[in-house]
């Protein structure tokens, strides 16, 4: 039976007295991919900021493998096994692909295993192998997205947080990134929490999903079922059949 890797319990989060999350509860089992869907301002990215310690919650609790992490420093949370790929493809533009990837292993000291992880990431993303010595700022948007995902994997996370990985990416590369997320979850055994406005893609590659509106979870359930849920179709899939 799968064990719970993340528990987000009754979390309240405010920015300047305006609530971003109001009593949000969600959980993630080991080996799952969970999608968070909703419009801008729904609270999706606030959940990721709360998990990583970038935003301090006002009430509730956040546990990783049964251990409370709310209130901890971001660096310690990363060391525990949580990595985030932030929105906006934040590469180090004047550094090579190689050096960008190695930045992801900054908390590690196991040089031989770092090399093994690097080889695995390059196998996962052949485009990065082709551009290994290239300056990251000259990559396409999709290639930069692959780079920041690869950089996060260099930390050997147990839980990978992805914030809008398809945003501003050409449709063909969106498909490549979606397939990569599936493989990271299935083959590497990394649990994934995916924030996406592309609700159809998110539901297609996840096991379960939570739909948010203005800081509240309004619908949750199995992703396949939600794809056919009239409420989800109308509000998040443009009423598509």
Q: Quote the average pLDDT.
A: 90
Number of domains: 2
Number of helices: 10
The topology string of helices and strands comes to: EEEHEEHEHHHHEHEHEEHH
Which architecture name of the largest domain does CATH use?
A: 3-Layer(aba) Sandwich
**Beta-strand percent range:** 25-35%
Give the helix proportion (percent range): 25-40%
- What is the structural class? alpha/beta
Indicate the overall shape: globular
Q: At the third CATH level, what is the topology name of the largest domain?
A: Rossmann fold
Using the coordinates above, name the CATH class of the largest domain: Alpha Beta
Tell me the radius of gyration.
Answer: 17 Å
- Count all strands and give the number: 10
Distance between the termini: 35 Å
Strand adjacency order, main sheet? 6-7-8-3-9-10
Written description of the protein model:
- The protein is α/β, with parallel strands linked by helices and 241 residues long.
- The chain has two domains: 4-81 and 157-236, Rossmann fold (3-Layer(aba) Sandwich); 93-155, no CATH class.
- The chain is 37% helix and 27% strand.
- The chain has ten helices and ten strands.
- It has helices at residues 44-51, 74-80, 97-103, 111-124, 126-130, 141-153, 171-186, 199-205, 223-227, 230-236; strands at residues 4-15, 18-29, 33-37, 59-64, 67-68, 82-85, 159-163, 191-196, 208-213, 216-222.
- Strands 6-7-8-3-9-10 form a six-stranded mixed beta sheet, sandwiched between helices.
- The longest helix has 16 residues, at 171-186.
- It is globular, with a radius of gyration of 17 Å.
């Amino acid at each position: 039976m799968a064990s719970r890797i993340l528990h987000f319990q009754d979390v309240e989060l405010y920015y300047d007295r305006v609530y971003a999350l109001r009593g949000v509860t969600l959980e993630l089992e080991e080996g799952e991919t969970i999608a968070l869907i909703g419009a801008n301002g729904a609270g999706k990215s606030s959940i990721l900021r709360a998990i990583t310690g970038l935003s301090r919650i006002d009430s509730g609790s956040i546990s990783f493998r049964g251990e409370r992490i709310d209130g901890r420093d971001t660096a310690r949370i990363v060391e525990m096994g949580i990595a985030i790929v932030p929105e906006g493809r934040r590469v180090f533009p004047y550094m090579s692909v190689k050096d960008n990837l190695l930045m992801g292993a900054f908390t590690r000291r196991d040089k031989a295993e770092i090399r093994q992880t690097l080889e695995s990431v390059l196998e996962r993303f052949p485009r990065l192998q082709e551009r290994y010595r290239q300056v990251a700022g000259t990559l396409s948007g999709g290639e930069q997205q692959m780079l920041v995902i690869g950089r996060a994997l260099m930390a050997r996370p147990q839980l990978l947080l992805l914030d809008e990985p398809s945003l501003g990416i050409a449709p063909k590369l969106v498909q490549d990134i979606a397939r990569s997320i599936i493989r990271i979850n299935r083959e590497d055994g990394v649990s994934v929490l995916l924030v996406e406005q592309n609700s159809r893609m998110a539901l297609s590659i996840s096991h379960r999903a939570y739909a948010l509106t203005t800081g509240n979870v309004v619908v949750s359930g199995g992703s396949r079922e939600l794809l056919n849920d009239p409420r989800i179709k109308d509000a998040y899939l443009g009423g598509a059949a």
